[in-house]
Amino acid sequence: MHTGILAADTLIQANAVDYLLIAIYFAFVLGIGFLASRGMSSSVDFFLSGRSLPAWVTGLAFISANLGAVEIMGMSATGAQLGLPTVHYFWIGAVPAMLFLGVVMMPFYYGSKVRSVPEFMKRRFGTGAHLVNAISFAVAQLLIAGINLYLLGSIVHALLGWPLWVALIVAALIVLSYITLGGLKAAIYNEVLQFFVIVAALLPLTILGLYNVGGWDGLASKIEGAAAANPDTVAPAADQLNSWPGAALTGFSSDILSVVGIVFGLGFVLSFGYWTTNFVEVQRAMAADSISAARKTPIIGAFPKMFVPFITILPGMIAAVLVTELADFKASGGEAQIAGGAGGNVTYNDSLLLLMRDLLPNGLLGLALAGLLAAFMAGMAANVSAFNTVVSFDLIQEYIIKDRPDEFYVRLGRWATVSATAIAIFTAALASNFSNIMDYLQTLFGFFNAPLFATFILGMFWKRMTATAGWTGLVSGTLAAVLVGILSEGTLGGLSVGVLPLSGQGASFVAAGAAFVVDIVVSVIVSLVTKPKPEGSLKGLVYSETPKEDLVDAENAGRPWYARPVPLAGVALVMVIILNVIF
Amino acid sequence: MSTESNQAEPDQTKVNKGLLGTLLSLFDIRNVIGALLSIYGVILLLMGLFGDPEVEKTGGPNANLWAGIVLLAIGAIFIAWGVLRPVVPDAPHPGEKE
């Protein structure tokens, strides 16, 4: 396709005011990087932000680190394609796990004073599990950073008409400069700022979209009309307008299996694996100023998280009926080649951009674009800053270059950032081969995260679990997920042979479930035939070996209920159940 | 809030002087958010008042104007919060010795 070499061909027609809004945003981003770099003296400052941030800051950063390109583009794309069942990624696939992280697991992470999730792995299980975890995490971060970068580049391409590779390099340089300058504190401050810019960008778009489509009723009747006109290619309107049973999302023919797949595969294995063991997220909480602030981080984050679907999935659904190109694309079942997308032909990933083009006046358009750019940089910055911590501490300091002064590792972290960015430019090219990013990402998560949660939870609550069980469980779980991926239809592209009648999200859920079960079974069997770690070495790492007072904040009892983690988590849980009932 | 004020007096040896010092003392994330949202609010407000409202796109409402007003209000809330409940930057936290 001959898209945009000349500025006149660009998808989005921005004017001077729009560019001004974007430029102001970048000035703030770089300013934060510069200011955060002052008064930073040790590696704890650089990597864990000096453990000094209040809970609302780390809580918003927790959400923002995940509110990257993948979430905004991926969720609006899935919303455009499948409608409301996409909310399961939030209400089933995120909030419960975030609450669990805050209530149950965070005390172990924060209390044991580890600097990273793999380091916890090392203290609990030793070298084998640590290496498996650290390396697979680092590789996954590079891949995901690549996806974020690719989407960032495609926006710049759509906006300015620069060739994609130029856009990629410029975008990568900006992310690079603010992380290397300010470390995690700059990343976290920027994430909090990004959260507000993203909301300021997407909320007006959603409201205007609803206004134009005739409110929720108007949207529902338009979706019904579109589904009735093309019953062969478009999911039935009832499936698009109700979150349960979500058969359109899983691809399962049975409603009951679909519910089981969502609750167990997505809700339990995938989401717990992702939210409770992913260092990108946990690192934000580790930067908090006390154990109760660390516990509150994911819990406070759960509140905005519940409402993110209304500014991502909803505009996606609106775009699929309001934007002509997208409506045609959907009517064709995602087969039609329609020019005018950010990366060539129109795909669901273009939903938000096209809706912005159609609805927003200059001014708001600039704000919306700043929000998208912000989100994409947030995602990539989060991946890269977690990557450099793991590479510097967990791989290089642990195994390759030991016992150097602190400054050495800070410098090393900066170099790790530079190389991660360079590699991300190449993985961006890889990411461009997948049309729906969520599928690709779920596949990756299934392989890396599902077995992790099994190993962590077993390791935290079963002191008999041995070091050998730690790494063999992880490896066999990951292999089980890869095997399901290969047997399914198209989950791994050309590698999948299609023996199992599963595809898309459903296959990911099954792969994750398989990884979880295999990991538990292998870990238990191996534990029973190998020698456990000596009792004394598990303090702070295993529930039964840790004194209760180490797991709570002494000041907590005197605080009002809304400042304590557990009651706050209860409120969040009730709210998310109400949301599930309404939709 | 965990920004409880038992953080005593600022450590005078760590306070930076000059322009950088002033910037650092304002470097509270609440001020940063407040400033950015307010600047955006003003620009959108001006666009709404004097620019083309492009009603053929928005379907009727002057979207810039409304968004500008809301952004200004939220920006003001953040700045007010930062002014009313200031935090001492880089104050060492009790019990945190590395």
TrEMBL record, chain A:
Q: Which CDD domains match?
A: SLC5sbd_u2
Matches recorded under Gene3D superfamilies: Sodium/glucose cotransporter
* Keywords (A to Z) from UniProt: Membrane, Transmembrane, Transmembrane helix
Q: Which GO terms describe its molecular function?
A: D-glucose:sodium symporter activity
Q: How does it sit in the membrane?
A: Multi-pass membrane protein
Q: Which branch of life, at top level?
A: Bacteria
Q: Where in the cell is it found?
A: Membrane
InterPro entries, alphabetized: Na/Glc_symporter_sf, Na/solute_symporter
Q: Does the keyword Transferase apply?
A: no
Q: Which GO terms describe its cellular component?
A: plasma membrane
Q: Where are the transmembrane segments?
A: 20-41, 53-77, 89-110, 131-156, 162-181, 193-211, 256-277, 298-323, 364-391, 412-434, 440-462, 469-487, 507-529, 561-582
Query: Pfam family of this protein, just one?
Result: SSF
Family membership: Belongs to the sodium:solute symporter (SSF) (TC 2.A.21) family.
Q: Which PANTHER family match?
A: SODIUM_GLUCOSE COTRANSPORTER 4 (PTHR11819:SF195), SOLUTE CARRIER FAMILY 5 (PTHR11819)
The name of this protein is SSS family solute:Na+ symporter
UniProtKB/TrEMBL annotation, chain B:
Task: Please give the superkingdom of this protein's source.
Answer: Bacteria
- Which of UniProt's keywords are assigned here? Membrane, Transmembrane, Transmembrane helix
Query: Membrane-crossing residues?
Result: 32-51, 63-84
Q: What name does UniProt use for this protein?
A: High-affinity Fe2+/Pb2+ permease
